[in-house]
Amino acid sequence: MKSRTTEVMPIVWIVIFTSFFLVIAGRFLYIQVSGEVSGVSIQELADEKRTNSYSIPASRGTIYDRNGMALAQEHVVYRLYAIVDESHTTNPLHPKHVKDVNETAQKLAPILEMEESEIAERLNEGIKNERFQVEFGSNARELNQEQKEEIEALELPGINFIEEPIRFYPNGMFASHTIGLTDKQDDQIVGINGVEGFMNDLLTGVNGSISYQRDKFNMKLLDPKEVINEPDNGDDVYLTLDQKIQTLVEDALSEVEDEYDPARMTAVVMNAKTGEILALSNRPSYNPNDIGEVENWYNDVIATPFEPGSTMKVFTLASAIEEGVWNPDDQYESGTYKAGGRTIGDHNGRQGWGKISYLEGIQRSSNVAAAKLAYEKVGSEKFLEYLKAFDFDQKTGIDLPGEVAGEILYNWESEKVTTAFGQGTTTTPIQLMKAATAITNEGKMLKPYIIDKTVDHDTNEVIAEKEPEVVGEPISSETAKKTLEVLETVITSENGTGHNIYNLNDYSVAGKTGTANFVDPETGKYKTGRNSYIFSFLGMAPAEDPELIMYVSVKEPNLEVTESGSAPVSFVFKNVMENSLRYLNIEPDKDATEPIEVVEIPEWEGKQTDSYVNKLKELGVKPIVIGDGENIKKVNMQPGTKITARQTVMVATDNMKMPDLTGWSFRDVLSFRDFLDLDLEWMGNGYVKKQSIETGSSLNEQDYLMVELEEPDVPEDQENASDESGEEANEEE
């Protein structure tokens, strides 16, 4: 029996091992033939393990103003990290990891504004935990070029940088509610409001990729089978905003903000012939490069309806003229008017001015005149048709997110009366501007727009371009002309609420003042007090054939006892409107009270510096000369350009040197940047205090320049227009 077992068992083991061998061999044969293991391709797995793949980020499109000045663009910053793994160093003579923790911490601390101990602790912790690299938190992120170069000059082993894109707004607090903001989501810049949000899909590109095969030392193979998919960059957006006009608005609002500390302000400038928005701003505002605490996220010009006050009388007047019931010489009894179950009072304590003409009533901004025109002469139901024809019951359709329409309150008989002088019914500034285009454009009402065109970032091909769009014709051309004539007398007549307040030096103005009540959210009633109003002005210039429309509102300014509510409003309007018309080369239509000499920029090509500069001085221009070269390289204005002596002319020589910027305004610094295409960064607000390039140093185009700004210790005196004839609050019982 034992002999039998001895004979059988070897055979059994042979069969078992043979079967096992056949299974293994079969498995290897199957793998060799099919190239798969558990459904996974061995070749693909091997390729994946030895292939490096990286994403190539697409650039987000740039937002430009109408003249090609960048308002929002991608900006490269740097994130610092330290390699602490010794194995990364292959040559001890050239270490690639942090060799001396204490020295590294000591030298980095002042640049990163961190404690040496904190940097050393992070480095030691990384070494202890056998990490490959460590980072240093927010202080080591978003470093600028100057900081990067300062750290690189230290030649610290193991210290490296990663380039990262951020969204940068070259003009800081400049149309910030309109341009909008972005946020980083999954390492991609995404627009969240304003144009950034509205046009996000177009601005956002599609990332590309690169892949190649490498060895175990992470080096490319001789035949790396490199595959590159180029990124599809985001497209560019050009706005109708004009940087120079927008800067005028921002500067004027900032001055009023400092002087009067109002609760809210809005200002918007529009091309009267096209509906293009040339400037738009609100206060409070914010700097998108340094958000901080934001008081107001709303773009009030389009998103905050309010009772407009007497600016609504513009459209009450136009309705009466169109209906043929306007007779400027007709007389009425001013002071009070009983209609719709209530008594309407004029703004001068209900006293009125006795029996006066309707023309004088409009000039004096009489609530009684407006109410009688709408309620008696036009008729309340017909007047409602005009309100709807002017689109006061709907959004303007402006190409910005977040627009909110006002509401025509016409449910009660009393509301049919108060709407005539801008109380009860609400509108937004942009609705008033849209309606005003019918007055300035021969009865044709235009749709306001702020996006001019979209352009392919890589080919510069225009993808889409906006054109002016007529969206209604609420009045005739003749009515528009007569309305302008009456509104001009609001400024020229001694009885006018805008007389000696909204006059311009070189241009006639047609317009209407406004003083509106607003509801106190705490009490639910109209707020009372001398300053507790929204003071506003809707102006058009030149009066006979307006090129620009401007609306300004200032809510609750802190006024001096001797000042009217028109003071801060007129300061903004006069500064912006006068200078904008000059900038646009609009021909003045009246003699200036102080004639301003206009000169023509002479030819500078091939001219020597001294002779050209002397020529400019003879013309009354004091140029800024950049450098000490004998010949002129370029001038910031083309030959033949007509300017006034007030404008800044920059002359670059063929040996450019850095000028002393101390005391320069921020506006002049921006002009200097644009002239030489400099990579400019700044800190603070106001006037230049420090500059990164030393005065007299060699200067080249596209150089990096950092300036530090500060507000002057004593603000310059500000001339504020005031006139006691200005309109007071709307009154009613």
Quick rundown:
The protein has 733 residues and is of the alpha+beta class.
What this model shows, in words?
There is one protein chain. By secondary structure, the chain is an alpha+beta fold. It has four domains: 2-49; 54-238, Penicillin-binding protein 2a (Domain 2) (Alpha-Beta Complex), CATH 3.90.1310; 243-583, DD-peptidase/beta-lactamase superfamily (Beta-lactamase); 598-710, Trypsin Inhibitor V, Chain A, CATH 3.30.10.20. It is built from 19 helices and 36 strands. Strands 4, 5, 6, 7, 12, 20 and 21 form a seven-stranded mixed sheet that branches. The chain has a five-stranded antiparallel sheet with strand order 14-13-27-26-23, with helices on both faces. The longest helix has 33 residues, at 2-34. The protein starts with a helix and ends with a strand. The model is unreliable at 714-733 (pLDDT under 50).
Task: Tell me the Rg in angstroms.
Answer: 35 Å
Oligomer: single chain
Name the beta content range: 15-25%
Number of strands: 36
Number of contiguous helices: 19
What sort of overall outline do the alpha carbons produce when their principal axes are compared? globular
The CATH top-level class label of the largest domain: Alpha Beta
SS class: alpha+beta
Q: Report the span from N to C terminus.
A: 128 Å
CATH architecture of the largest domain: 3-Layer(aba) Sandwich
Instruction: Return residue spans where pLDDT drops below 50 for at least 5 consecutive residues.
Output: 714-733
The overall average pLDDT, rounded, is 85
- Name the CATH superfamily classification of the largest domain: DD-peptidase/beta-lactamase superfamily
CATH topology grouping of the largest domain: Beta-lactamase
Sheet with most strands: 7 strands, mixed
The residue fraction in helices comes out at 25-40%
Q: What is the count of distinct domains?
A: 4
Protein name: serine-type D-Ala-D-Ala carboxypeptidase
Pathway: Cell wall biogenesis; peptidoglycan biosynthesis
Transmembrane segments: 12-30
Family: Belongs to the transpeptidase family.
